[in-house]
Amino acid sequence: MNPGPILTIAGSDSGGGAGLQQDLKVFTVLGSYGSSVVTALTAQNTLGVHAVEPVAPDFVGKQLDAVLE
Fold first, then answer.
1. pLDDT of res. 52
2. Considering the domain boundaries, does residue 21 fall inside one?
3. Does residue 1 form part of some domain?
4. Does 49 fall in a domain?
């Protein structure tokens, strides 16, 4: 059974272990594909989060509009 497309609205984890990167991996395991709206950029690794840069709310909205169009 294919659950269809799935949307994640999340931060981006530069280490790949969390955030939208991990969400997209899970969607693949479920046999689906994902689209994403990025809410924050992070500089992180397995030792911790070094910095977080939020995405401007207006741009988050533009991403959401684009993927739902």
1. 97
2. yes
3. no
4. yes
Is residue 23 a part of any domain in this protein? Answer: yes
Tens-place pLDDT, residues 31-67: 998 999 999 999 999 999 999 999 999 999 999 999 9
DSSP characters over 2-65: ----EEEEEEE-TTSSSHHHHHHHHHHHTT--EEEEEEEEEEEETTEEEEEEEPPHHHHHHHHH
> In which domain, by residue range, is 37 found?
6-68
Domains contained in the chain, number: 1
- The model's pTM: 0.86
The residue type of 50 is: H
State how far the alpha carbon of 14 is from the alpha carbons of 27, 54, 62, in Å: 19, 14, 22
> What CA–CA distance (Å, rounded) separates 49 from 21?
15
